Amino acid sequence: MNDSPLLNKPVGQTLRTMAIPAAFGMLMTFMFQLVDTYFIGMLGVDQLAAMSFSFPVYILIVSFFMGTAAGVSSTVGRALGANNPPKAQRLVGVAMTSFMIITVVIGMLGLYVDNGLFSLLGAKQEALFYVKQYMTPLFLGMFLLVGGLIANSALMAKGIMIPSTAVMVLGGIVNVVFDYLLIFGHGPFPTLGLQGAAVATVLSWLTILVLMTALLYRAELLSFSFLGNLKQASEDFSQIMLISTPAIAAQVLNPIAIAVITRSVSQYGDNAVAAFGIVSRIESLALVGILALSVILTPFIAQNVGAKANHRVNQSIAISGRITVYWGIGVFLMLALFSAYIFNPFSQNPTLTTIGQNYFYIVGLTYPAFGLALITSSIFNGAQLPKRSMAITMVKSIILTIPMVLFAAQFSLESIWIGIALANILGALYARKQLIQWQKQSGDSTPNSMIVKDYINDFGQLRWY
Questions:
Q1: Can you tell me the mean pLDDT for 374-393?
Q2: Which residues contact 377 (CB under 8 A, 6 or more apart)?
Q3: Where exactly are the transmembrane stretches of this chain (predicted)?
């Protein structure tokens, strides 16, 4: 009998016990990134703008491997759900080895094409100096990040959340400490400025990888036995890529859209680019609950699909949908009411603050829609239907966001924000259509009346508090 808590504990309780540590880990990571942004902001607007230009490329590479992590989480989760631990161990070993090697190659390529790449994003010659300072250490150390991402996804597939969260928090602390020491040069440490922030990030990645690997061995989730059977390793890699390839494509589409947005925003000056970089960090922090839920849904769905527990899959879809809507509404209200105070620590420039406020007023209203599309994509990854997941991201990013932003950029900066908001709403509607089709094909469709009843019951319970 499979005694996995992902298969046996109540669905709501399981999602909470997985999502809360994941959210805390993400929260700490984003907090440390905001500290990063705060320190860089002390260097000046030029350095902030350089970080913003770097962000789409950095996110593109990270998203590529987040797609592989989703594939690893899904395949490892399904193997564990089918009660096949040796296969799960092999899959983790193959994934970590293969993708870390691939990342080294990508990093070298990034160093070779960096000037042309960032020029395409709108970086002027004076900005390229700072961009290269920031990205060179990140390109060189990116393989450490990827190893940590793969390890974390494997631990999550087994429901191991608190130890991996502690590792992420420790990595964040390492980042902040070395930010302070290397950006400004304290004690024996040199003053590296913007480059110091990047070096601190790489040191945190190294810390995370070493500790995550130790956790994998402790959980009996890592084996390099595939090195003695390369044919089996090739088959395992093919299985991972069968799920990962569409997931990678889906993940990569979002940074492409961000790159287009950044390019469009750059028409309105460095202040606009710097403000967009700051709101992106604040937004990631504020939406941490939804992001955490989307991450843990993939292994939860994968294990339950592997165990053929369809009733638990349906319960998780209903519960996660309501959590997403409530979180999105709460974040919008918080940012709409307090955006000026939230923005102020990162820049005292009133122009940047006004741009940020307008973004939150317009785009923030559609956070529930953004979240629903995101978790639906994760549900499909867990069900090993990555093509449906990719379709959602492709429609939202390529068919909706990019054309709307490019058109809106001809009018005003606020029009760009309206284009993003419309893409969020239409993307959520498309995701809902995909989910309903899949549920009907599975014979598990939930009537709209039941969904409405769930919301009414939730609000009815609130009256007693």
A1: 84
A2: 250, 294, 389, 392, 393, 431
A3: 20-45, 57-80, 92-113, 133-155, 167-185, 197-219, 240-262, 282-302, 323-343, 359-380, 392-409, 415-431
Handedness of CA 382, 384, 385, 386 (dihedral sign): positive
Distance CA 411, CA 401 (A): 16
Q: Which of 49-53, 152-156, 427-431 has the highest mean pLDDT?
A: 427-431
Separation between Cα atoms, residue 208 and residue 174, nearest integer Å: 10
CA 60 to chain centre: 11
Q: Do 419 and 405 meet the contact criterion of CB atoms below 8 Å apart?
A: yes
pTM of this prediction?
0.73
Q: Which amino acid is at 1?
A: M
Cα gap 297→354, rounded to integer Å: 36
Q: What is d(CA 9, CA 170) in angstroms, rounded to the nearest whole number? A: 29
C-alpha to C-alpha distance for 285 and 280, rounded to whole angstroms? 9
Q: How many CB atoms lie within 10 A of CB 68?
A: 26
Angle between helix 230-265 and helix 367-382 axes, rounded to 10 deg? 170
CA angle 371, 390, 443 (to 5 degrees): 80
Count other C-beta atoms under 10 Å from residue 3's C-beta: 7
